[in-house]
Structure formats: C-alpha cells, structure tokens
Design brief:
heterodimer, A: 251 residues, alpha/beta, Rossmann fold, globular, B: 326 residues, mainly alpha, ABC transporter involved in vitamin B12 uptake, BtuC, 1% strand
C-alpha cells in the first residue's frame, strides 16, 4: 500500500495551551485510520491541521511523500484532502444534487451561465450509485432524509470532488444502529476501492475497531497508543484511559 | 424550494397540488367567482385592466423582497425608494439630461441606496430590519426635501410614457417580464441557488466557499432598484408624482405577496411565481372589495384580516407538508 498522507512531529500551541505536542502518523491508500481520544485531547486540532484550517507551529505534512504547506482549506482541497464535519454542511431546503454540487455547480456554456440541472442530476445519481448510496431521488430535499442518509450524501459529495484523503469527523455520532450500519458499509466500500485513504475521528471504541484497519489514541496532544485494529480490544483501550483517570485523580 | 418529485404523471400532479402556489390559485379562483356573483362587473375588460394595475406594483416589489427574505434579510425602505425615484428622474431631466438617460440615472441612484443598505447591514452587522427602518425615515425626508413637499408632473414623450406605464397594460407586462426574468435568476443561476443556500444554512454556505456578502449585497441592490423602477412605472401611469406615494403600504403588499405565495419568513425557501400568485390574490381582494363599495374605513380591516389569514394559512400548510420549507 502506498503512503497517502504522513504527518511528522506536529506541534501546535494556542497561547499557553499545547494542543499537539509532536504528533506523527501516516495513512496509506486503501487504509482506514481511526483517531480515538477524549474531548480536548487534540483530535480536532490534528484534523484541522490536515485540512489546512490551522497551520502547525512546527512539524511537517507530506502528501504522496512530498512535503506540503497548506495556507488554507482550499489549498488542502487542491491536494485531494476533503473533510466531512459533524455539521455536514448541507442545506436542508435544497435537493440532494444541489447540495452535492454546492458552489461547484455545472453550467451550460454561453454567456448566460445558467445552471445545468440535467447534468448535475445525472452525475450526482451516478456518483451515489457508484459508492452504493440509495436515495429515493437526487431531487429529494436533503431536509427530508434521515441522519444516516445525510451523512452518506456529505461523504458522497467529498468523494465526488476527487477526495483522495478523506477525513471524517465523528461520522457515527448520534446515530442509531441501522443508520450507523449504512455509513459503516459505505466506508467499507470506499476502502475496497483502494484509492482513498480514510482518517476518522471517533469516540466509540468498539465501532472504530470494527471499521478501521489501525487505531491511534490521542491523549494530551500526544499519541500514546498505536496498533492494528485486529490486534486491539476495546477493553485494552479502556484500560489505558482508566489508568490515566486514576493518575489524574491521585496526581 | 424544490419539491421532492415522485415518478409518473399522477405523482407530479400530487406534488403540484401540495405547492403553496396551488392553494393560493384555488383561493384566487374562488374569490373571482364570489366577486363575479356579487358584482357582475368583476370580469369585464375595464375591471381586468384596473385589476392588473392593482397587481403590477406589489408583484415587482415582491420579486426583490422574496430574494431578500430567502437569504434571511428584508428591506422595509423599498416603498420610500419607490417615491424618491420619480423625483430623482424629474430633477435630473430638468437639468437637461434626456428622459431615457434620466431614468437610467435615477435607477442607478436607487441601486446605490441598496448598496448603502448592504454596506451598513453587512459591514456593521446591523440587522437589515433596523438598517432599512432607519433608511425608511431618511429617504422620506430626502424625497420631501427634493420635492419641497409638492407633487409634480411627469415629463417625457408619448412613446416613452406609453412604454413606461401609461398604456393600459404596460405595467402588468413589465411585471410579468420581471417575474419571468427573476424566476430564471432564482431557479437557474448560481445567484439564485446561493441565495437559497445562504438563507437555508449560512454555515454550510460559508464552508462551501459561497461569497455570502456578495449574494446579500446583490439582493439589496436588486430590491432597491426594482422599488425605484416600480415608482417610475406608477409615476408614468398616473401622470404625476407624489412625494408620499408608495411608502410602507406598497412595501407591505410586496412582502405579503411573497409570504402568501409560500416564501419562508425564516429564509431558505420561496418562489418568484409564488409572489406573482400572491400579488394576484391581493389584487383580487382589493379590487373586489372596492367594487363592492365597502366603506373606506372597514376596507383596511377586511384587507388586513384577509392578508393575515392568507399568510397564516400558508405557514400552516408549509408545516403540514412536512416542514420541508420550515
């Protein structure tokens, strides 16, 4: 498997707070990495550096083995990095295909620059079919969909815009078992394509171990545990966190 | 804005019936039948002409207000721009500028007012409700100062005057042309789509990289310009200009036309066609009750109540449809 994205010794501070204290990780194409950790551990800062939202104080990010500096989110997008945030960034009153093409609309040629609804519908439907997301119609309003379907639309949008490195922020948060299954299956299918590296942030140890190939645990801005998911149990991860709680109480 | 369509003709027909425009059209037809029974003069060429004049101005104003409402803004001062525009045109004309150019210059000044509203609202983060409330008083004062409080006559040759509103149906034709154009803008351009996105989920719009401020500014400029244009049309039709024409009354009719036609006050949803049918319904009410010879004092009570009922009904209908339009 070829390396898609690698971060080396990322450090990020906000005033006196050290959010990341030398974090290194790498993800290959076709691999899924789970990032676990408590609130405030540094997961979000890490993701935001990878998406170009924050710039690290020191350390280096590599895409396809080449060192990169992201000045902005658009910059990271140009390198094939797409992030699906928890709020999903969908407009409820708009149809599925309008959401999938939001601000990247296809236009008819000519000076009038009118929207090419037909081509957008066609391509949106094809993109959804390709990754196996079932919707009643691409003309359905996003507001009428379930949480799982909405998440799937947001992921499909990222994939359609040629994401090669897909960051998912809590993709299974607040989702019932059946809805979660929809997204887990979708991630499995994306993984099977072999050309996308997936990084997902999560809280739920058991689910993350099931979905991901490898997991890392972030604590106090450092990676304190890293292992193949198959060789790890949720109990093992819980033990590490419990130990920390105990240390925090006595220390 | 875009209904979830089912397959087949029956599905499409069902979807159409659930649209807010459909219920307004049904009520409008019922009103026409009622007024025709109550007064045989309702469906006559002469009255249809009168009706078209009731309808035209609010509908054009509605085209601007609908765009603003969809992106969660409003312009309360559009009726004052309506009154100001003809005086600007006449004053520019008096200096020796040909009438057609004076019209363009007056419209440019109205566009500038929209730009000022946008700059204050966006730049200083003042709710547009407040910005335009202030502008409402400011522009009234401006119009009274320019006109010294006196009405004036409109200048211009017969051809121009005819095109701009004096010919019986020219105002409604302008209104229909603007409706057609704005329908295309809202449904078939990025400007329209992004207006819906900004009103529907401003965070999502920002994350997608939509230029939110540019969209809002365009809609403020559009509304003021259309307000001024409507004022010019009315001035040419009536043949004189009045510093107290239009005002909050015409603004309110424009907003009401939009809301009756299904535009969501909370933003994110609305159609231009809805504004047209809403305006037609309001016109039928006004015209019908005028023909009935209702007492001038009770007239406003009846109209006010009718507008209130129509707006509440449509908001309830939207909720019944499953909250798709909120």
């Amino acid at each position: 498997m070829s390396e898609a994205i690698r971060a080396e010794k990322l450090v990020k501070t906000f005033g006196h707070v050290v959010a990341l204290n030398g974090v290194s990780l790498q993800v290959a194409r076709g691999e899924t990495l789970g990032i676990l950790g408590d609130n405030g551990a540094g997961k979000s800062t890490l993701i935001k550096i990878l998406t170009g939202y924050h710039q690290p104080d020191s350390g280096q990010v590599f895409v396809d083995g080449r060192p990169v500096q992201f000045a902005s989110v658009d910059d990271a997008r140009a390198h094939g990095i797409e992030c699906v945030y928890q709020d999903l960034a969908l407009v409820n009153g708009l149809s599925i295909y309008h959401n999938m093409f939001l601000n990247r609309e296809l236009l008819w040629g000519g000076p009038l620059r009118l929207l090419n609804h037909r081509e957008m519908r066609r391509r949106a439907a094809a993109a959804l079919a390709e990754i196996g997301v079932a919707v009643p119609s691409v003309e359905a309003e996003v507001g009428a969909l379930s949480g799982g379907q909405r998440q799937a639309i947001a992921v499909a949008r990222a994939v359609m815009s040629n994401a090669r490195i897909l960051l998912l922020d809590e993709p299974l948060a607040a989702m019932g078992a059946r809805e979660a299954r929809l997204i887990i299956d979708l991630i499995e299918r994306l993984k099977a394509r072999g050309d996308i590296a997936i990084v997902m942030i999560a809280h739920n140890y058991a689910q993350t171990l099931e979905i991901c190939d490898r997991v890392v645990l972030v604590q106090h801005g450092e990676i304190t545990f890293e292992s193949a998911a198959a060789a790890t149990s949720a109990e093992q991860l819980l033990d590490i966190v419990r130990r920390e709680y105990r240390a925090a109480r006595t220390g | 804005m875009i209904g979830a369509r089912r397959g087949g003709v029956a599905g499409r027909a069902y979807g159409l019936l659930l649209r807010p425009e459909a219920s307004v059209i049904v009520v409008s037809v019922a009103l026409v039948v009622y007024f025709e029974i109550a007064n045989a003069n309702f469906v006559t060429p002469a009255n249809l002409q009168t009706l078209s004049q009731f309808v035209a101005a609010p509908v054009i104003i509605a085209c601007g207000e609908i765009m603003l409402l969809i992106c969660r803004e409003i312009d309360l001062s559009v009726g004052q721009v309506f009154a100001l525009a003809p005086f600007l045109m006449e004053n520019i004309n008096d200096v020796g500028v040909p009438e057609p150019l004076a019209i363009v210059a007056a419209l440019a000044a109205c566009a500038l007012i929209g730009l000022v509203i946008a700059l204050i609202t966006i730049g200083l983060r003042v709710p547009s409700f407040i910005t335009t409330l202030g502008m409402l008083f400011l522009i009234t004062g401006l119009t009274l100062t320019i006109s010294r409080g006196y009405p004036a006559n409109t200048a211009g040759g017969p051809v121009l005057t005819g095109i701009m509103g004096e010919w019986a149906y020219s105002e409604i034709l302008w209104a229909l042309a603007i409706v057609a154009l704005m329908h295309i803008v809202l449904r078939h351009t990025r400007w329209g789509l992004h207006t819906v996105a900004v009103g529907g989920n401003i965070v999502a719009a920002a994350e997608a990289g939509i230029a939110i401020n540019r969209i809002k500014t365009a809609n403020f400029v559009l509304t003021s310009t259309l307000g001024g244009f409507t004022g010019l049309l009315e001035a040419f039709r009536v043949g004189s200009i009045d510093p107290l024409a239009g005002g909050s009354n015409i603004m309110f009719l424009g907003v009401a036309s939009g809301v009756i036609g299904g535009t969501a006050i909370a933003g994110g949803a609305g159609t231009i066609v809805g504004g047209l049918v809403g305006g037609i319904m309001l016109g039928i009410l006004q015209d019908g009750f005028t023909l009935q010879g209702i007492n001038a004092f009770t007239f406003d009570i009846v109209i006010g109540a009718a507008i209130l009922i129509a707006m509440v009904a449509n908001i309830l209908l939207a909720r019944l449809r499953g909250g798709g339009t909120r």
